[in-house]
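User: My instructor asked us to take a sequence, write out its structure as tokens, and then describe one feature of it. I'm not sure where to start. Here is the sequence I was given:
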Amino acid sequence: LDAALRFKVSDQLNVWAGKFKYGFTRENLEACETPLSLDRSLFVRAPYVTTRDLGVSVWGNLLNDMVQYRLDAMNGRNDAVSSPEAQPRISARVHLSLLDPEKAYGYKGSYLGQKKVLTVGAAYQYEAAVAFSDTTNATGSVDYKAWTVDAYLEYPIAGVGTFTASGAYVNYDLG
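Assistant: Let's start with the prediction itself. The structure tokens for your sequence are:
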């Protein structure tokens, strides 16, 4: 599924180029082998592309891994049949880890009680001329804009178990 060149300059600066998960929603970035549940949302991901895209991501961890940033320039929707012109899809994401840090490129849906995690994230995504405004005549264009906020909590309690909660809000705008 993924094929990427990964350059780690430091913990604060990583550059990935190739095909991999784009950095918009937490749910899209969760590893498939460690989901919180098998029920994945049909809506909490970017429209018009699958969960992966071709492009470049610059990302890193700051302030003792409490803050993570990501900037992506991805291929986006680029078929001339359904979109007016090929434009890159730009994403920016930041998260704040208030307990144990989540410092990898991807997330886990569960750490199986091995970490105490409280992470709050936010992202913005944009692609110009993503679709025709008049699909019947294949004319005009609309831009795609979206923003999201999310939170993830996992807290193990000895002798009781591990409590996990995750939630997100996404606002999509196609003009």
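For the description part of your assignment, you could build on this observation: DSSP finds one helix and eight strands in the chain. Try explaining in your own words what that tells you about the chain.
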